[in-house]
Specification:
This protein has ten helices and ten strands.
């Protein structure tokens, strides 16, 4: 089971809800992914009252847990205000905290992120910070009160996978008891499997599923990949070698003198 704050989950795949071709396809993709958590942008759902009500009805019908986010926020004040509104709209203390610092890569502003996390944790929010793989930043976020970390794999929507496996592995090793969720940049199911093989607890996918030719089939593929990666991690992979090692013993076999 995956423990995120007080909630226990059986699925290790979290799903974003943006950019799907239609609400019906989103609904089918959520079911195919077998996810229990869906992220929701307050800004998108607030852009039109009637559209927002329809989307909220769809989410309630699916019976998933909602993780509102502060997507598009570029300052501490903006992120904190958006979190306050999200708590009122969605009735949850959960918040996926994003404070964007650079427009081309959408890299988090880790200074603003840690300050916003400190404020929101003190106000009783259960914060899921979108961060980098930096160990020092991770320490600061945990000290601020976060109990989950969401490091990026690569820039949002890039589909590049895990850009820095060494740093991500170091993050996992330094914080063995902290739930770590890869957020952003995964493009194909093998990327998700690799994240779980490295010991990460879950992945959050949006663009790779929503913009696929067949989002529903891709959602199912990611669900299988997450399960395979987790099983491989628990099974224990062999260590890489520089030289070949025969799978059949050579002792006692016939040989030519």
């Amino acid at each position: 089971m995956l423990q995120l704050y007080a909630l226990s989950l059986s699925s290790r795949l979290l799903l974003g809800s943006a950019r799907y071709p239609s609400p019906a396809i989103l609904k089918d993709a959520v079911r195919a992914a077998r996810t229990e958590v869906v992220t929701v942008s307050l800004r998108r759902e607030s852009s039109g009252e009637r559209a927002g009500q329809g989307f909220w009805s769809l989410i309630r019908e699916l019976g998933v847990h909602v993780l509102p986010n502060t997507a598009g926020c570029h300052s501490v004040k903006e992120a904190v205000n958006t979190a306050h509104m999200a708590r009122e709209v969605f009735g949850t203390a959960w918040i996926k905290l994003e404070v964007i610092g650079e427009d081309d890569t959408l890299q988090p502003d880790v200074f603003g992120l840690t300050e916003a996390a400190r404020i929101l944790c003190a106000e009783g929010f259960e914060v899921f910070p979108y961060t980098t793989e930096d160990l020092v930043v991770a320490e600061r976020l945990l000290a601020a009160g976060c109990r989950v970390l969401m490091p990026w794999g690569s820039p949002i929507g890039s589909g590049r996978g895990l850009n820095n496996p060494f740093a991500l592995s170091a993050l996992r090793a330094h914080f063995p008891q902290v739930p770590l969720i890869i957020d952003a940049g995964l493009g194909v199911p093998s990327h998700a499997a690799r994240a779980l093989e490295l010991g990460f607890d879950a992945v959050l996918i949006n663009t790779a599923i929503a913009r696929a030719r067949d989002p529903v089939q891709m959602a199912a593929a990611f669900a299988h990949a997450v399960e395979a990666g987790r099983a491989a991690r628990l099974a224990g992979a062999i260590e890489p070698r520089d030289m070949a090692e025969p799978s059949t013993p050579v002792m006692g076999t016939a040989f030519r003198p």
